[in-house]
Amino acid sequence: xxxxxxxxIFSLLMTACGADINDYWNGIINGRLPSDEEFNSIIKDFxxxxxxxxxxxxxxxxxxxxxxxxxxxxxxxxxWTVKIKNTYRKRSKEDLKLLVFHELGxxxxxxxxxxxxYAKVFEVLMETSDGRIIVLHNKLIYPNSLMWPNTVSFxxxxxxxxxxxxxxxxxxxxxxxxxxAVEEYDFSTQxxxxxxxxxxxxxxxxxxxxxxxxxxx
Length: 217
Fold this sequence. Notes:
By secondary structure, this protein is α+β, with helices and mostly antiparallel strands. The protein folds into 2 domains: 20-107, Zincin-like (2-Layer Sandwich), CATH 3.30.2010; 116-216, no CATH class. It is built from 7 helices and 7 strands. The strands form 2 sheets. It has a 4-stranded antiparallel β-sheet with strand order 6-4-5-7. It has a 3-stranded mixed β-sheet with strand order 1-3-2.
């Protein structure tokens, strides 16, 4: 009789409210399915920042498309898995964090790729050969979100604290731009956005007057 009751209880756990057995196990295995140890602290940071619980595993894998750094896919019914390209094992923890936050943005925060750009103006003091001080105003354009495609390849350079804070904030506040942004550009495709980004970067490198101006102190 006791054995029969146990079987009935287990059957209810599997079928109650239409729940899948995977959802049940997700809730009891340490609060999540096991991830590779390199990602545990990153997952905890994501959970803390966005007040959510991540049950899906985050793992290194060879099963990632050649044109991607990572993917978030449904492995089995109701089990999402974040896969990071195996070759990224040697990447810095900061690079891995940006990439994992990008992928969790897809499958935990329901974010699509963002093709929004914004511009900031920086002042740089320069001294000329004759002792004059020149203030150079340089306009630079950035992707507005960590949901920009090819996250690591673009964000691999060191980000300053304010920029990092903006990207982490925007991830849960879609479309917000920094207070010091002077212009914003919203595109529907990556090709359009990339063309704008590349053209401005080229003009900046050439010190084009559209992007740089200066005055003497």
